[in-house]
Amino acid sequence: SHPSYVPSTSLKDEGIAVDLHVFRKKFLKNFFLIYDEYCNKGFHEIKKLWISNTCHLNSTIKISRHNKIYTGIFDTIDDQGMLIIKNDDGKRLSFSNSSIGVIDDKK
What we know:
The chain is α+β, with helices and mostly antiparallel strands.
């Protein structure tokens, strides 16, 4: 499930046909290539790949953790994979697992 403020669709609804066997094969091939890179080179390489592919970097996001909402600019992920935001005061806050949503995509 996803938050109601995040629009969603399906490939089928968009008229895109995907062969399950081809998708599974390509997905697993890429998954294991990245996993092998992680095992051989560590998280740093995966972090660079992840950051280069994120679409919400420098966007305002809100994070729900322990019944409290935090709002800030999505800055990066750190070397432990934690999400880093900058709040209105410029303070950097880190989050490891939370409910995250984009509220103002500036990209």
